[in-house]
Amino acid sequence: MAKYVVSWSGGKDSCLAYWKAVCQGLEVAYLLNLVNKDSGKSMSHGLDPKLIALQAQAVGLPIIYRAVTWESYETEFKAALRELKPEGITGLVAGDVNLRGAGDWMDRICGEVDVEPVLPLWGMDGWEMLNGFIDAGFRAIVVSVKTDFFGKEWLGQPVDKNLLSRFKLKPDIDPLGESGEYHTFVTGGPAFKREIKIEQTARVLRDDRWSLDILRYSLG
Question: What is the DSSP letter of 44?
Fold first, then answer.
């Protein structure tokens, strides 16, 4: 049977893509996360890899890390996929939705490594996807925002219908944060066997972003 690895950021998109793939009957065997060599944080959302590992534990899957720079990102991404092929991995699941060029990039990368690209969210309407994420029972919080669009008070806010209503008052943002307007961290839901409990946080300004440092947490 074909097996799949999920490109996992820790946020809503990759989590929902994983869940949709599972619901379609795909066998997901691994999660894959790329870590910035310089900062030691995840490339996509700037999360501590320990939090990503906790998510993998909560989901019940092993996670593979690759330390990369922006210059080596593509090379290391392909290398990770090649290393998983002897483990039976034949496809990659990713949470790309509509970011220009992302689908083509994924198709090219997977073609060069000879694995199947699976993009369960591709082309979905942003509001429909967010509502679907919430209605499915997933729980997530905002962990990073661009200062051009949001203040620090948005950090730690739950991704719920109230948040969507507030997003609609900001017509200059993409509802999914496709241009990096905001990032999320998923703490629970139907894809999770256990819930992540956030116990202590701190708001930190880094360049043009407010970030929520999650200092203490546990697995329920």
Answer: T
pLDDT 10s digit of each residue in the chain, 220 long? 789 999 999 999 999 999 999 999 999 999 999 999 989 999 888 899 999 999 999 999 999 999 999 899 999 999 999 999 999 999 999 998 876 677 788 899 999 999 999 999 999 999 999 999 999 999 999 999 999 999 999 999 999 999 999 999 998 999 999 889 999 999 999 999 999 999 999 999 998 999 999 999 999 8
Q: Token pair for residue 103?
A: 């689908």
- pTM value is 0.94
Do the Cβ atoms of 64 and 31 come closer than 8 Å? yes
Distance CA 88, CA 90 (A): 6
Residue 141: CA count within 13 A, CB half-sphere = 17
Domains of the chain as residue ranges with CATH: 3-118 (3.40.50.620), 135-219 (3.90.1490.10)
Please provide residue 97's backbone torsions phi and psi, each rounded to the nearest 5 degrees. Answer: -115, -60
CA distance readout (Å), 23 to 16, 81, 136, 138, 175? 10, 23, 12, 15, 24
What CA–CA distances, in Å, run from 30 to 12, 153, 177? 17, 35, 26
Q: What amino acid occupies position 102?
A: A
CB distance 63 to 53 below 8 Å: yes
